[in-house]
Structures are given as structure tokens and as C-alpha cells.
From TrEMBL:
Coiled coil: none annotated. This is BZIP transcription factor. Residues 63-77 have a biased composition (Basic and acidic residues). Gene3D superfamilies: Designed single chain three-helix bundle (1.20.1270.70). Residues 33-97 are annotated as: Disordered. Residues 39-57 have a biased composition (Low complexity). It holds the Pfam family DUF7518.
Amino acid sequence: MSDQDERVEELESKVERLEATIQGLTEELVEVHDRLETLETSAETSATSADATNAETPNSGDSHARTDENDESKSEESQNEDETGGESGLGDDIIVA
């Protein structure tokens, strides 16, 4: 094989690795976007629920405490997802040189 053929083969290999990396990152981005939409929807629902509770009992500090608990559980859930890395299974075998 000539040097030029080897160079072409090397470049084709790099292109394949880069395409795999792009594919993996794109899939992870879509997954993160979906998770973000879910969290935003959940937050909006919680806010609407808290507003309704506050409207029913304007002098109650109890509903505010429940909202704080919801915020804490969301933070813990987000932290757990960060620690596990989302376990998408993507990118485990992708090596970027």
C-alpha cells in the first residue's frame, strides 16, 4: 500500500470516529433537552399548585414549607441524575483522539 492509501484510510477512520462522536453527542443533547422540558413542566405544575394552595390559605406558612420541600426533592433528583451521569449508554465506547 502506498503512503497516500494509508493516509486516506487513516482519514476515513478519523471521520468515522468523529461521526460516531457527533451522533452520540446529538443523542445526549436530545435526551437532556427532553429531561429539561419534563423538569420545566413539573416546575410549572408545582408552581401552579402552590399558587392555588396559597390562594386558598393566604396566611398559611405551611404551603410555603411544602414548596421548599418540593424544591429540595427536585435538587436531590437532579443531583442523583448528575451522579449517575444519566446512564444513556451512549459514549461509553467513543474514544476521541
